[in-house]
Amino acid sequence: MSDTIFSKIIRREIPANIVYEDDLALAFKDIQPVAPIHIIVIPKKPIPKLDEATLEDQVLLGHLLLIVQKIAEQMGLTNGYRVVINNGDDGGQTVDHLHVHLLGDRPMRWPPG
Ligand code: 5GP
């Protein structure tokens, strides 16, 4: 049910440009970047979307954001960046494995499309 392209990346069944990994999470470059820096951060636990996270995932969710912070620092995003979680159809989610987008190295507009 929860086997997605991201699960295949975790299992190294398809290639990805991985920039960070630990026991709980993986981060890699987006295949179709919408900013000069576009990183996807995922939990290894296959939570399909933010709506399906539970209290049990509280620490894991915070962990993902601290990974974003770490990668942003490593990539020199000292002037800011954007963090996005698309949830469900209206949120524009296309891969059913919870993920956090880190977008940077250009000014972002508001509101997003
Ligand atoms: P969503 O639209 O679900 O929030 O974001 C999914 C993201 O995953 C998209 O930005 C898309 O470009 C990216 N993506 C989809 N398939 C692959 C893939 O096979 N490899 C990588 N690196 N990124 C992917």
Structure description:
The protein is of the alpha+beta class and about 110 residues long. The chain has one domain: HIT family, subunit A (2-Layer Sandwich). The protein is built from three helices and five strands. A five-stranded antiparallel β-sheet has the order 1-2-3-5-4, with helices on one face. Strand 2 (about 25-30) and strand 3 form a beta hairpin. The model has no long low-confidence stretch (mean pLDDT about 95). Bound molecules: guanosine-5'-monophosphate. Guanosine-5'-monophosphate binds near residues 5, 16, 31 and 92.
Topology:
Blueprint: H1 5-10, E1 18-21, E2 25-29, E3 37-43, H2 58-74, E4 81-84, H3 88-91, E5 100-104
This protein binds guanosine-5'-monophosphate (5GP).
Structural domain tally: 1
- By CATH, the topology is HIT family, subunit A
Outline the low-pLDDT stretches. none
Mean pLDDT: 97
Please state the second-level CATH architecture.
2-Layer Sandwich
Secondary-structure element series:
HEEEHEHE
| Broad structural category | alpha+beta
Largest sheet features: 5 strands, antiparallel
User: Which hetero ligands occur in this complex?
Assistant: guanosine-5'-monophosphate
At the fourth level of CATH, the homologous superfamily is HIT-like
